[in-house]
Amino acid sequence: MAASLGADFYGFILTDRFKRYVAPEEVARLKQYVSSGKTVGVFVDESVDYVIGTAKTAKLDIIQLHGSEDDSYITEIKEKTGLPVIKMIKPLSENDIITARQSAADLILLDSGAGGTGKVFDWSLAERLGRDYILAGGLTPDNAHEAVERLKPFAVDVSSGVETEGTKDFSKMKAFAAEVRKI
After folding, report:
1. What CATH number corresponds to the domain at position 119?
2. pTM of the model
3. Chunked in runs of 10, what are the mean pLDDT values of the chain (183 residues)?
4. Domain span at 117
5. How far apart are CA 9 and CA 40, in angstroms?
């Protein structure tokens, strides 16, 4: 469904303790449908070896980290995989924005939580970041236009905001994409 809407990035949860987990072999199989976009593997506090092996098996284009991974971990992943790294930061204060600004990651993802919370964080913090970032957290077809117009992020990331009863809803996905592309 996302491919039919022309998504640029396709995120797959590759930490198996989350409900949206997708096996690495399945990601590699699904990659055939995303020839115009990049596959992003999402990991939460996994070992370096697991991330490296999974990135290879899943044939990832980008690694996204959603845990407590620090700059030395990020640098090691980048060096050992040759892939760009996105790091999620939960912006609660100016200190979090400073951490995000100084991160060794290639790109920052600002999110209100561990993913799928449906909650928006204080967007005024994002306005002070001073580097490209991906906006996530509580985005829906109803607020996507405002978010992109106001914050001008590099990209937006949505999951639960385009679901109905825990399943991706094509009509919500289509509405979300239309709102983002208006800007």
Report:
1. 3.20.20.70
2. 0.93
3. 92 94 95 88 98 97 96 98 97 95 97 69 92 94 95 94 94 96 87
4. 3-181
5. 7
